[in-house]
Amino acid sequence: MQQQHCGIKKFDNFKNFNDILNEMEIHLKIYNEYVASIQFYGITQDPETLLYDGFKICSR
């Protein structure tokens, strides 16, 4: 079984959800263009502040 490394990308300076979607679009274009081994699993929101904290990134 191959080991995976995972992390959370933080969105500290984003003003709205469209900024987050634009950031994800850039990563997905790179993924599709170079067939990289980075996978995205979603976006998480802090229930107390209602700010979007990030999305999970895993590489093989």
Short description:
With 60 residues, the protein is of the alpha+beta class. The chain has one helix at 17-34, and strands at 5-10, 38-45, 52-59.
Commentary on this structure:
The protein has 60 residues and is α+β, with helices and mostly antiparallel strands. It has one helix at residues 17-34, and strands spanning 5-10, 38-45, 52-59. Helices cover 30% and strands 37% of the residues. A hairpin with a 6-residue loop joins strand 2 (38-45) and strand 3. The longest helix has 18 residues, at 17-34. The mean pLDDT is 71.
Features:
single chain, 60 residues, alpha+beta, 1 helix, 3 strands, 37% strand
Succession of helices and strands? EHEE
- What is the CA-based Rg, rounded? 13 Å
Morphology call: flat
Number of helices: 1
Q: Which class do the helix and strand fractions yield?
A: alpha+beta
- Biggest sheet overview: 3 strands, antiparallel
Strand order of the largest sheet: 1-3-2
Q: Give the termini distance in whole angstroms.
A: 11 Å
Number of strands: 3
Approximate strand percentage: 35-45%
Mean pLDDT: 71
Low-confidence stretches: none
Please, how many domains? Answer: 1
Helical coverage, percent range? 25-40%
